[in-house]
Design goal:
single chain, alpha+beta, 2-methylcitrate dehydratase PrpD, 2 domains, 6 strands
Length: 457
């Protein structure tokens, strides 16, 4: 019987052509992730990693770091992916329930060493392979796996990314199977770490594991090809009570990035807040709401979202990213959220703290969620004059159903450059959007200068 990993590997190898739309969406995802890497490069989580491995960084290597300098591919993947996820501004991918690109892009960049070049087009095709693998692995275990408490970025994301890296390195079917099988043995990451620096570290660990698994596989190491579905395998141990397995897994001619897309984040905080933020901003605009006229706000979200948002009274900027109360209050009073809202100084603003107690969060029941992939997040505003205003959002801004425009993407990228202490110019954004046209990403200094050159604004 053909195993699930072999089925996935065969699918990845059989997809030899990609539509213009798929390449464009992959390019958008990569550029967005690079922006998030730049913005997160100065985060304390990244600084701690560079201190921890200072000797190895100083010793040099062949893979480039977003912080500048060189390191081994494994260490570059660890640091760069942690930077990509440090500010929780990186994209979401619903089929995997993962921050897909924060793992995939740094992992793929890490193996572009001086002796191994690749074109921008081939890089994007490897990204699409890794994304499809993440979706296929996630199909069998999510949402049960995620709801059970596993951070799928670190589990599903790592397994799928290993396939993408192996594809970029030229692996055959057996090599792809081995890479994913080995990555399954690395999988870990409890969601109980949300709101701490360990959460972005999960993306770093996943990218490092993907790189290591792919390189080990190409060197001849392997694991069981049926490790996803066999007893004491991934589904058995990680699936949770309601995981369905892969019996109904199918692959469409249309790539998953076309049919589902990745969700580019509009707000630099946990995605569990985004639909509620968008709904509240919709209500504010539609009814010209003022803070003094609001008696209270109730939000109804998914069970996993409510568990993710564990900080009603955040004590630091990381907790604030996982606080529905802080994110909603700040978004309403300012009309938007930006990276500058998540600092120790900003989270204590009196006007925000005064507004936060008016916000309450509830979740759907297990019965309401049973058998439903997604339910809308609902915001109800109680006005002091007795009016009740309600708005629901099934899709956040930045999703395939509510896409961000090129101009909105550019605004976000500029915000990331500014936060990462880069010179703010739209030229780098325009050049990176032509990623498919680069002939040699590892040897092309112009590509890397767009990512790693640090200048004073």
């Amino acid at each position: 019987m053909v195993t699930i990993l072999r089925t996935i590997a065969q699918q990845l190898l059989s997809r030899t052509t990609f539509s213009t739309l798929a390449i464009e969406r992959a390019s958008d995802a990569v550029v967005d992730t690079i922006g998030c890497m730049i913005a997160g490069s100065g985060d304390e989580s990244v600084a701690a990693l560079t201190r921890a491995f200072d000797g190895e960084i100083a010793g040099g290597g062949q893979a480039r770091l977003i912080t500048g300098g060189l390191a081994s591919p494994s260490l570059a993947a660890l640091i760069n992916a942690t930077a990509a996820h440090a500010l929780d501004f990186d994209d979401n991918f619903h089929p995997a329930r993962a921050h897909a690109s924060a793992v995939l892009v740094p992992a793929l960049l890490a193996v572009l060493t001086s002796g191994r070049g690749t074109s921008g087009r081939r890089f994007l095709e490897a990204y699409l392979a890794g994304l499809e693998a993440q979706a296929a692995v996630g199909f069998g275990v999510n949402p049960s796996h995620y709801n059970r408490g596993w951070h799928a970025t670190a589990t599903v994301g790592s397994i799928g990314a290993a396939a993408g890296v192996a594809r970029l390195l030229g692996a055959d079917e057996n090599g792809l199977v081995a890479a994913m099988s080995l990555a399954t043995s690395f999988a870990c990451g409890p969601k109980g770490q949300f709101g701490t620096a360990a959460k972005p570290l999960h993306a770093g660990i996943a990218a490092r594991n993907a790189v290591d698994a792919a390189r080990m596989a190409l060197a001849g190491l392997s694991g069981r090809p049926d490790i996803l579905e066999r007893p004491q395998g991934f589904l058995d141990l990680f699936g949770g009570d309601d995981a369905r397995g892969w019996e109904g897994l199918t692959f469409e001619q249309e790539h998953i990035i076309e049919s589902r897309g990745v969700v580019t984040k509009r707000h630099p905080c946990c995605a569990s807040t985004h639909r509620a933020i968008d709904a509240l901003l919709d209500l504010k605009q539609e009814h010209r709401l003022l803070a003094d006229d609001i008696a209270g706000i109730e939000t109804k979200v998914g069970i996993s979202a409510a568990r993710n948002l564990a900080y009603p009274d955040p004590a630091d900027e990381m907790q604030a990213r996982f606080s529905m109360q802080y994110c909603l209050a700040t978004a309403f009073l300012k009309g938007c959220l930006s990276l500058s809202d998540f600092t120790r100084q900003q989270i204590g603003r009196p006007e925000i703290r005064e507004f936060m107690p008016r916000i309450d969060m509830q979740s759907y029941s297990a019965d309401e969620e049973k058998g439903v992939e997604r339910l809308p997040h609902v915001v109800t505003v109680m006005m002091r004059d007795g009016r009740i205003l309600k708005k629901s959002r099934l899709h956040a801004k930045g999703s395939r159903e509510a896409p961000m425009s090129v101009d909105e993407r550019q605004v976000k990228f500029m915000d990331c450059l500014r936060w990462g202490n880069r010179s703010v110019s739209d030229a780098s954004f325009r050049q990176l959007r032509k990623l498919a046209e680069f002939e040699n990403l590892s040897g092309d200094g112009s590509f890397w200068s767009l990512i790693t050159d640090r200048q004073s604004p």
